[in-house]
Design brief:
Residues 170-215 form the Soluble ligand binding domain. This protein is of the alpha+beta class and 388 residues long. It has helices spanning 2-15, 26-32, 37-40, 55-65, 68-73, 138-149, 191-197, 223-228, 272-278, 300-307, 309-318, 341-347, 362-374, 380-387, and strands spanning 50-52, 89-95, 110-116, 122-125, 129-132, 157-164, 169-174, 180-183, 208-214, 217-222, 241-246, 250-255, 261-264, 287-298, 328-334, 355-360.
Length: 388
């Protein structure tokens, strides 16, 4: 009888991998982590790594998520030396001391000329001709024009004012009240100020994402984070592009939980424990307390921080690649057997589109196998007895 049981147990363990199942075991996830496509013998396999989350890891992820803009773009500052650029509209007022000058009459001793800076950086003024304006401050342009008028006008003086600063504008589009090109002030403008001048966000701050594109760099952050973290509300620069999108945040929870589902946040912030509770909690009978995972495409800076630069580059050589948004796949693992997991779970933020997976306990597959082989010849109680 013992030999028969041993054969059944051995066959059951071997057959567990072929049984119907709701996702991988913890051991299967760990077994694929860090493996190359060649090692997995799957040419299109996704290369990723797992990270056991402790308090330090949770704090690293949370802090970086709240400082993405300032890290990637720097704080910036108010405008320094503001110069005239191509496309700018200038009002050039020329004054003369006498009434019989080039620009004066008996009724007025001044003339105002509208000038648009051309693609070659010049503007044309009567009796002066083309003059280079791009790259000059308004005072430098004033002096350059004045120098050209000497010996032509009667004791001339010049005033240059900006009527439009197309060269010093940012584009604000998407879910805002009035998508437009917003011209920057000399005092300097922060992201929220520019969005406000474009009509403000069309949705609540905790459902609105702000994407900043500057040259070859891009990053997205929740508008709520800009409001709550002043360091993130950085100064914009000419030719920045700002996109505001309305994206109600959701996460997906799968595995041994009350209900596999896509769940809306229902709040401005959500940590791991709150997310699991929101989905109905885990299964006491079939769940693996050591196998709670968060699958995420993470910012490259965070991946390098939690894995280390050496491990990150090693995985890249094995086929780790970013998605279309420049983020890399990573899997965070939580051991709910550990008492401090309740503290770690409160510190770990859930992000939009996260997938939370609660793995089943390894014995679940064995019990399924025992039920399959025992049902034709016995009763359910017999299955339980054999399992015990």
């Amino acid at each position: 009888m013992r030999k028969i049981v041993a054969v059944v147990v051995t066959a059951g363990l071997a057959a567990c991998d072929t049984l119907p199942a709701a996702g991988p075991l913890s051991s299967q996830i760990e077994g694929q982590a860090g493996k190359s496509r060649q090692e997995l013998n799957r040419p299109n396999a996704s290369v990723f790594d797992t990270v056991d989350v402790d308090q330090q890891t949770a704090r690293t992820v949370a802090n970086f998520s709240n400082s993405l803009f300032s890290r990637r773009f720097g704080i910036g500052g108010r405008a320094g030396r503001v110069v005239i650029g191509i496309g700018d509209q200038l009002k050039i007022s020329i004054f003369e001391a006498g009434s019989d000058g080039l620009f004066s009459t008996s009724q007025s001793k001044q003339t105002t000329i509208d000038v648009v800076v051309q693609p070659d950086g010049t503007g044309t003024i009567p009796y002066v001709g083309p003059i280079t304006l791009a790259g000059k401050t308004q005072e430098e342009a004033r002096k350059a024009i004045l120098a050209k008028l000497v010996n032509k006008a009667v004791e001339p003086d010049v005033l240059v004012t900006a009527a439009g600063t197309a060269s010093r504008s940012v584009t604000v589009s998407g879910a805002v009240g009035k998508p437009s090109n917003v011209e920057l002030t000399l005092a300097g403008d922060r992201i929220t100020e520019v969005i406000a001048r474009a009509g403000g966000p069309a949705s609540e701050p905790y459902e609105s994402y702000v994407t900043l594109v500057r040259g070859t760099k891009t990053a997205s952050i929740l508008l709520k984070s800009l409001i709550e973290n002043p360091r993130e509300n950085i100064y914009v620069e000419p030719r920045d592009q700002i996109y505001v999108t309305h994206d109600p945040r959701t996460f997906t929870i799968l595995g041994q939980v009350e209900k596999n589902n896509r769940v809306p946040f229902g709040a401005s912030d959500l940590n791991l424990l709150e997310a699991i509770a929101l989905a109905g909690g885990g299964s006491d009978n079939q769940g693996d307390a050591e196998g709670y995972f968060v699958f995420r495409y993470e910012e490259p800076e965070i991946v390098m921080d939690v894995l280390g630069a050496k491990r990150f580059h090693e995985l890249q050589s094995k086929g780790l690649v970013a998605n279309k948004d420049g983020r890399y796949p990573i899997v965070y693992r939580f051991n709910m057997h550990s008492p401090d997991s309740l503290l770690v779970g409160q510190s770990f933020p859930i992000k939009n589109r996260d997938v939370i997976y609660a793995a089943r306990h390894p014995t679940v597959d064995f019990l399924k196998f025992m039920q399959l082989i025992a049902t034709p010849v016995g009763t359910a109680s017999g299955v339980r007895a054999v399992a015990n």
